[in-house]
From TrEMBL:
InterPro entries: AB_hydrolase_1, AB_hydrolase_fold, AB_hydrolase_sf. The chain crosses the membrane at residues 21-39. This is AB hydrolase-1 domain-containing protein. Keywords: Membrane, Transmembrane, Transmembrane helix. The lineage of its organism: unclassified sequences, metagenomes, ecological metagenomes.
């Protein structure tokens, strides 16, 4: 009888040990999957509508692809529209850093995998800078790029002694922005948005996009952005380029001079200024903007 009891006790302990090991394995697997999922979040999200020649639309910093909706509503009647939203913005999950190089490579891979030869790239602000980076890669065989208030080296415009190597994630400015309370950041976003559009409703929308952005992506992603200097890469671009610049707040003369300086390595391009418009041209001058985009697309067949 004693032997039977000892056997049952031993068997029970063995079962408990097996169950404990099984639970540890399951927990470990779940943890690993969770970490892997975070590391493998997509750098870009693309929504495709319409049929025809491909048009890839890349929004600016913190801005979701929804900004292109009024334009896409018209373009999708004749074109296949690929609307991009970047990781960390518009409610999309954040990714590991460095952020912008992953975004750039993902867009390149997307174009190649979907065989978007002769595609038109339309990019606003950061999106235009990314479009410029893509256009310098002859492997992609793009058709043309349309840049809206976008520069190849924004950091060089902001800093007289610009040196990309000096721009790092761990900086007092970045630390300060990460440490901001929600209330302080909301005030900061509100002030920033006022200079980006002439329309009050648009300013609120821009502020909301900034507030919805993942804070680390906002801070470190912006560092990636202003580090990027494509002025030498402009020499590699062989496709048509149209640049639409906003007249406000600096005026036509200064805007023209800035763009001439930044794009002097580009062999040829068409340049136009959106009158009475701040940075978000598509929000300040929507009818004019739509008309110009349709004319540019039609001119390329």
């Amino acid at each position: 009888m004693c032997n039977i009891l000892n056997f049952l006790h031993l068997k029970r302990n063995q079962n408990l040990e097996i169950m404990k090991n099984f639970i540890l394995i399951v927990v470990s697997l779940l943890f690993t999957v969770s970490i892997y999922a975070k590391l493998e979040n997509q750098p870009i999200y693309v929504e495709v509508t319409g049929k025809g020649k491909p048009v890839l639309l890349i929004p600016g910093f913190t801005v979701p692809g929804d900004i292109w909706k009024p334009l896409v509503k018209e373009l999708e009647k004749k074109y296949e529209c690929h609307v991009v939203t970047l990781a960390g913005f518009g409610g999309k999950d954040a990714i590991e850093f460095p952020w912008l190089p992953k975004v750039n490579e993902s867009l390149k891979n997307y174009i190649l995998q979907n065989d978007l030869q002769n595609a038109t790239l339309i990019g606003h602000s950061l999106g235009g800078t990314v479009a410029t980076w893509l256009a310098a890669d002859s492997e992609l065989k793009l058709g043309q790029i349309i840049l809206i208030d976008a520069l190849p080296a924004s950091g060089a415009l902001m800093m007289p002694d610009f040196n990309p190597d000096n721009l790092i994630y761990e900086s007092p400015y970045n630390d300060q922005q990460l440490a901001m309370s929600d209330a302080d950041f909301e005030q900061f976003a509100g002030n920033m948005s006022k200079g980006m559009s002439n329309q009050e409703l648009a300013q609120e929308k821009i502020k909301d996009w900034m507030l919805a952005a993942d804070r680390e992506t906002y801070v470190y992603g912006y560092t990636d952005y202003i580090k990027l200097d494509l002025r030498e890469d402009l020499k590699k671009i062989e496709i048509p380029v149209t640049i639409i610049a906003a007249s406000e707040p600096y005026g036509k003369e200064m805007v023209t001079q800035t763009y001439e300086n930044q794009y002097k390595n580009l062999k040829d391009y068409t340049f136009m200024i959106a009158e009475n418009s701040a940075h978000f041209v598509m929000l300040d001058q929507p009818e004019w903007f739509l008309e110009q985009i349709q004319i540019i697309l039609a001119s390329q067949g």
